[in-house]
Amino acid sequence: MQMLIDKENNSKDKIIKPDFSTKTGREFLAFYLQTKFKQILSYDKKTERPIFKEINPNFISKFSRRLIENPNKKFLIGVTGESASGKTTICKQIKKTSTDLDFPLEFLSIDNYFNDISDLIAKYGTFDALRDNGYDVDSPESFQLDLLKEDLTKLSNGENIKAPEYLINGTGVSVPNSIPISAEKFILVEGMAAMYKDIKDLFDVKIYIDIDPKIQKKWFMERASKRNQSEENALKHWDYVGDAAEKYIRPSKSEADIIINGASSLDYFSQIIEFIHTATNCFIS
Fold first, then answer.
1. 3-class DSSP state for residue 210?
2. Strand locations in the chain, DSSP E?
3. Are strands 258-261 and 52-55 parallel, antiparallel or unpaired?
4. What's the pLDDT at 21?
5. In whole angstroms, how far apart are CA 124 and each of 127, 130, 171, 217, 246?
6. pLDDT (0 to 100) of residue 253
7. Regarding predicted confidence, which is higher, 223 or 23?
8. For residue 111, which of 135, 133, 134, 79 has the smallest C-alpha distance?
9. What phi, psi does 52 have (nearest 5°)?
10. How far is the C-alpha of 189 from the C-alpha of 99, rounded, in Å?
């Protein structure tokens, strides 16, 4: 990928920013981006550990149509996948790289839209005890989906928001209007609820992070250890997230525009963002 980046940097054929107020200008941009995306896919197929596992055949034409017909709206990119699939790590890497390159991308974690369950945790003593008594943390009813839908609609229309913050200290507290989120040109929205009903249709691009189950379990147990969970409790929660994934997450895989390998190199993800930034000659803003 570095070779493609260097080639773009050294190219004498830098394009001039099209006039996006005209349909012709937007059609040119759509065609150009299609060409560059196909170039990325062609390169990716030859790598030892490709990022792209599957692309919906209608994705490129749908993306182009969206770009041409609704140029003023922000691009919402929904990213979902099972627990410990790598989705949060990948999205944070993409956000970091975008920030370093001054690429117009914002990141929003749907985990912050969990309901406030502090009263329930106080009643049962711990989150684990609450879960063991039947609380389904991954169900659509466990999220503030109406607020999420409202916030995503605002971002799509160019309005900044303040997202809630769900505290990960075991208290189950959700702090409203806590995290400022800017309505950048591209907004990366990550979480298992990204493909839930009434939310998934808000996204211009839907991405599913796929992972080998053996790698997933290894990452899950390592994360549990870092959080000082006992192996017994971690394995119990592993069984829970597997059941939840079967009900709420895996069915959405068939609806994704892009299926990505969660075990691909983070540096490779960064290189792809750098290539897109370089190839567009900074005219995406």
1. strand
2. 52-55, 75-81, 105-109, 161-166, 174-181, 186-190, 205-210, 258-261
3. antiparallel
4. 79
5. 8, 6, 11, 28, 27
6. 96
7. 223
8. 79
9. -90, 115
10. 16
The CATH code that applies to domain 2-279 is 3.40.50.300
Would you say residue 79 has pLDDT above 70? yes
Residues 6+ apart with CB under 8 A from 77: 186, 187, 188, 189, 203, 204, 205, 207
Structure-block tokens of residue 46: 């030859």
Rg (CA), the chain: 20
Mean pLDDT in residue range 191-220: 96
How far apart CA 200 and CA 193 sit, in angstroms, is: 8
52: pLDDT strictly greater than 60: yes
Is the pLDDT at 80 greater than 70, yes or no? yes
**Phi, psi dihedrals of residue 126, rounded to the nearest 5°:** -145, 165
Q: Domain extents for the chain?
A: 2-279
214-234, pLDDT tens digit by residue?
999 999 999 999 988 899 999
Pairing assessment for the beta strands 161-166 and 174-181 based on DSSP bridges:
antiparallel
Q: How far apart are the first and last CA of the chain?
A: 24
Residue 182: CB atoms within 10 A of its CB come to 13
Q: How does pLDDT run across 113-166, given as a tens digit for each residue?
A: 999 999 999 999 999 899 999 999 999 999 999 999 999 999 999 999 999 999
Contact assessment for residue 114 and residue 226, using Cβ atoms and an 8 Å cutoff: no
d(CA 255, CA 250): 10
